[in-house]
């Protein structure tokens, strides 16, 4: 398929033709790992140190968050090969073909956040390394130029589509890994594994701060939940569940490399809250160029994996927009957020708030989809999932005016309770002290969704046609335009 790398991808969210499902689980690993083997993940790795934790505790909290997040994420790779579309559209089987807009909202929230992180930190790293190399302080102008170049390059890759993204991520996996390992030589002589932390915890005491650090790390794998289907849809359903589950999980375990790089180097800088400036100041001169390479390649990798899926899905909600047009629109809005957030607001605090929202809104959505997958025994009607996108109504997944109220009645309380229990610097709910200040928001939101959805389905069974043993209702599918109903 190398001859298609430089061709603009024509596929939107319509099912991928079986003959074009030529990817493998290892390609899914490359996309997921490449999208996280970047400065964006390094920055997330520095936050536990900025919260005041020691190196050991920061490493433990991060490992816990990554492993738990990887386990929650892995099943989201099962949908794409069966539905041949992205996860937001696939969620229509459980939330209804109109209710699946919840997934589109989550995709948009995640894309803007991680696209902003990738461009922001990569641009700052380029500007800082340039100053270290040439002694030139370009200030806000140089940073703005760096943001613009990386953002435009990311948009170009997204417009070309999946095959080009796969090439970028193959490069990012190898090059990013090699340069981070090279950091052992650059910083090994200064690093102290016994670093004891600042002694001042972000949330006052140890366990609430430790939990905050674990949730920060967990946000990274959870952020891929809405996007795995963007790439998994190119994998044939003939591959085993084991290989599909292993690919995203192992990709997240591999991100312990950039997380570890961030944790270790954050102990060396004067102010972990101003990590990029501090890192370039303590870096050997010979390591400045590799830092620029990691920043550029990593910015492309993270930015494209985030932005591509949202452009893809946004075009399905507004059919008048092609995938390319939707990508350009979302990309432009994201760039505006980057400039406003960096030059007018507190970017770090904004990202922390968005990361919390991603975890608490996306994780119950993922749980409901996973339970639904088991209940349906992996059966999906590919044609009926496309009803909303094609301006029709009816089909297996129409439920009540296109919404499955059972799933919504589980997701909304789960998300709400999670936010009420959150205890972070930016988002602190009224129930934040329910466990002595320890943030139990993730546990609450997961348990609520995992209990509420099966109970609701038991009490109010879903229509029999959503199961494989029932004849398809597509024969009575109404073909009126969506506007006709209004």
TrEMBL record:
Q: Which ranges does the record mark as transmembrane?
A: 31-53, 59-80, 101-121, 141-162, 171-190, 210-232, 244-265, 285-305, 326-345, 351-374, 408-428, 434-456
Under Pfam families, the record lists: Transp_cyt_pur
Task: Report the InterPro entries cross-referenced here.
Answer: Pur-cyt_permease (IPR001248), Pur-cyt_permease_Fcy2/21/22 (IPR026030)
Tell me the domain of life: Bacteria
Q: Which GO terms describe its cellular component?
A: plasma membrane
What membrane topology was assigned to this protein in its record?
Multi-pass membrane protein
**Compartment(s):** Membrane
Q: Where is the composition biased (Basic and acidic residues)?
A: 1-10
Q: What is its main location?
A: membrane
Per the record, the similarity remark reads:
Belongs to the purine-cytosine permease (2.A.39) family.
The protein, known as: Cytosine/purine/uracil/thiamine/allantoin permease family protein
Q: Which organism is it from?
A: Amycolatopsis camponoti
